[in-house]
TrEMBL record:
Residues 11-242 form the ABC transporter domain. The keyword Cell inner membrane applies. SMART domains: AAA. GO terms for molecular function: ATP binding; ATP hydrolysis activity; branched-chain amino acid transmembrane transporter activity. The lineage of its organism: Bacteria, Pseudomonadati, Pseudomonadota, Betaproteobacteria, Burkholderiales. InterPro entries: AAA+_ATPase, ABC_transporter-like_ATP-bd, ABC_transporter-like_CS, BCAA_Transport_ATP-bd_LivF, P-loop_NTPase. GO terms for biological process: L-amino acid transport. SUPFAM superfamilies: P-loop containing nucleoside triphosphate hydrolases. Belongs to the ABC transporter superfamily. Keywords: Amino-acid transport, ATP-binding, Cell inner membrane, Cell membrane, Membrane, Nucleotide-binding, Transport. This is Amino acid/amide ABC transporter ATP-binding protein 2 (HAAT family).
Length: 242
């Protein structure tokens, strides 16, 4: 199993625990993300992938562990503090401001960012997704599901994050839109943003990830490269097969 040197880590999740009521969902999740890496969190439904992203973002209060960004512990901080520190979330629910236009939604996401994080502009977002430029004066509530996914991703990027968490970006999308979203994530990676991707489609995750983590029973059961994962059929059967 490949390991990243401690000094290279931008985001470190250490022994993370989280509960929903009395249910102990995350039971000691640990992994790290290097600068410019794409890490995919894989696992069956209910394995804790989305809860991990929400706990990192402060939307689910951690009940134990550390979330270190450049050495600063963000565990227990409020979501807006975590966002300002350099972490962004693209939620699975595609949460847009339905009564605002595409342009207005994008403006809602804009933040100065950090000196060591790539800077993004609205025009760059339109380069990613030309369809959004065509619809820039349309209310977000009138967009298709694919267009709302594009908008949510762009709004998160405009906070100029160091790390972006992307939760199930291709869920329910047509194959052509899935390809566009996958290419956008690859471009985000090329421009130096670290990505934590939660993706149900294994082919997409393996294609664009530098490393993958398998979650099972509330903790990481494997961390390695896509090739290391696909070279272990028993691991795939035990933790990913339905």
């Amino acid at each position: 199993m490949s390991q990243m040197k401690q000094s290279q880590a931008l985001l470190q999740v250490k022994d993370l625990h989280a509960h929903y009521g009395k249910s102990h969902i995350l039971q000691g999740v640990s992994f790290d993300v290097g600068r410019g890496e794409v890490i995919s969190l894989l696992g069956r439904n209910g394995s804790g992938r989305s809860t991990t992203a929400r706990a990192i973002m402060g939307l689910v209060p951690p009940t134990g562990g550390q979330i270190l960004l450049d050495g600063r512990d963000l565990a227990g901080e409020r979501p807006y503090t975590i966002c300002r520190a350099g972490v962004a979330l693209v939620p699975e629910e595609r949460e847009v401001f339905g009564n605002l236009t595409v342009d207005e939604n994008l403006q809602m996401g804009m933040q100065p960012g950090h000196d060591d994080a790539p800077k993004w502009t609205v025009e760059q977002m339109f380069d990613f997704f030309p369809r959004l430029k065509e619809r820039r004066n349309t209310r977000a509530g009138n967009l298709s599901g694919g267009e709302q996914q594009m908008l949510t991703m762009c709004r998160s990027l405009l906070s100029n994050p160091k790390v972006i968490l992307i939760d199930e970006p291709t869920e329910g999308l047509a194959p052509k839109i899935v390809q566009v979203v996958g290419e956008a994530i690859q471009e985000i990676h090329r421009r130096g943003v670290s990505v934590v991707l939660i993706e149900q489609k294994l082919t997409i995750a393996l294609k664009i990830s530098t490393h993958v983590c398998l979650l099972g029973h509330g903790h990481i059961v494997f961390r390695g490269t896509p090739d290391e994962l696909t070279g272990n059929p028993q691991l795939l059967k035990d933790w990913l097969a339905v």
